[in-house]
């Protein structure tokens, strides 16, 4: 007999704000900040390496926070939380702003090539 799928936690807008705030704060904890910095340095701004090295660390940090709110302690919990945040972004400007802040913590800043794409002559 197949087991029933786990119930997805239902959070209100206010609860989602609290959890999102805690997730962002978790990245400021010295131990977590050091883990992220080490992963970023190892990735050397290579997007493939970022996915291999930085994303798993970021996922673990998020999981440590959201599991207290009923999300499972696997990657699926982070995805469900991300979907919930995305749903509330359009309804709540504070959640939208925190979501942008979280993304900036996770994604490397992208440098844009010079206009025209020309490489300056040496």
Structure, described:
Helix content is 63%, strand content 0%. By secondary structure, it is mostly helical. The chain has one domain.
Overall body shape: globular
The whole-angstrom Rg is 18 Å
What's the main sheet like? none
Order of helices and strands: HHHHH
Q: How far from one another are the termini?
A: 71 Å
Helix content: 55-70%
- The count of β-strands is 0
Q: What fraction of residues sit in β-strands?
A: under 5%
Count of runs of 4 or more consecutive helical residues: 5
Low-confidence stretches: 1-5
Structural class of the secondary structure composition?
A: mainly alpha
Mean of residue pLDDT values: 84
Protein name: Protein C10
Keywords: Cytoplasm
Family: Belongs to the UPF0456 family.
Pfam families: P_C10
Write the layout of secondary structure elements.
Blueprint: H1 13-26, H2 30-43, H3 47-66, H4 75-89, H5 93-106
Helix pairs in contact: 1-3, 1-5, 2-3, 3-4, 4-5
In short:
With 122 residues, the protein is an all-alpha fold. Helices cover 63% and strands 0% of the residues.
Give keywords.
122 residues; mainly alpha; 63% helix; disordered N terminus; cytoplasm; Protein C10; P_C10
């Amino acid at each position: 007999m197949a087991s029933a799928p786990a119930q997805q936690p239902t959070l209100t807008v206010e609860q989602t704000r609290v959890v999102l705030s805690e997730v962002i704060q978790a990245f400021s904890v010295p131990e977590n900040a050091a883990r992220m910095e080490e992963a970023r340095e190892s990735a050397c701004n290579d997007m493939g390496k970022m996915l291999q090295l930085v994303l798993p660390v970021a996922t673990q940090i998020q999981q440590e926070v959201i599991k207290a709110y009923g999300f499972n302690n696997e990657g699926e919990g982070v995805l469900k939380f991300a979907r919930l945040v995305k749903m509330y972004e359009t309804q709540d400007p504070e959640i939208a702003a925190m979501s942008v802040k979280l993304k900036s913590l996770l994604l490397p800043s992208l440098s844009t090539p010079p206009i025209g794409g020309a490489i300056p002559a040496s």
